[in-house]
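Posted in: Protein Modeling Q&A

I'm a second-year student putting together a small comparison for a lab meeting, and my supervisor asked me to include a predicted structure for Sugar phosphate isomerase/epimerase. I've never done this before, so apologies if this is the wrong subforum. The sequence is pasted below exactly as I got it from our records. If anyone can share the structure token output, I'd also love a short note on what stands out.
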Amino acid sequence: MWTLSGFSDEISPELTEQASLLGELGLSYLEFRSAWGTNVLDLDDEQLTRAKDLLDTRGLRVSSIGSPIGKIFLDEDFEAHLDRARHAVDVAHRFDAPYIRVFSFFMRPGSDPDHARDEVLRRMRALAEVAERGGVVLLHENEKEIYGDIPRRCVDLLESVGSPNLRAAWDAANFVQVGVRPFTEGYAALRPHLEYVQIKDAHLADGEVCAAGRGDGEVAETVRALREDGFDGFFSLEPHLSQAHSLGGFSGPELFTEAWQAFTALLKEEGIEHR
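Accepted answer (user: helix_wrangler)
Welcome! Here is the predicted structure, written out as tokens:
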């Protein structure tokens, strides 16, 4: 059975409000990206304890730490970022989260990502080693404007690093926003590496984000294929229906609910059970 999760900071900056709506929608997992307007990796010890206690009280578990690891430019200091990755592992342990979301570094405007391949791979191997030592799995998200923004480079990255602790998080909307038809052009190559699915959609014409199944993200086709090949994992709502920026997005309670309704309706049409 598939398990639904979601970037609950898209509901509200307040963790209590996030938890309340997740409970109303019947979700028992969240992707922990921020609380009280602060990124999860910047929460102090007291805030982390408060967050853990609140989630435990509400019966909520963390599917993944929605970290910004890898969301720096390739010419920025990596050693400090590597320390941040180690902290992310500690936070994952604190919340019993099996996954940490990561990225493969922003490219400067006008630069050729392929020319940055060697340095990207060096850094991603170092991050994978941190994950291996920490016993967690890094999920590489195909964010736009990073090295791994298109299927070819995502596959190259994952295969070249070759670590079981570095896997793919599939984001259809991000592929659409770089001109890729996700299922048609990327699914077959990325499926062997695919561990986790983020749910949002977008229109090829202008890149505008929309609810799942309402754009060009080929969400239904992807869902069918995952069902047919026995995928069993998390589907994490990341609607971005109100705002989107380099470190996340926002939807609000009504639009987050709309995103949940759209995706669960699609699953119902396909006869797929979820929890």
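A couple of things worth pointing out for your meeting: The two ends are 7 Å apart (CA to CA). DSSP finds nine helices and 14 strands in the chain.
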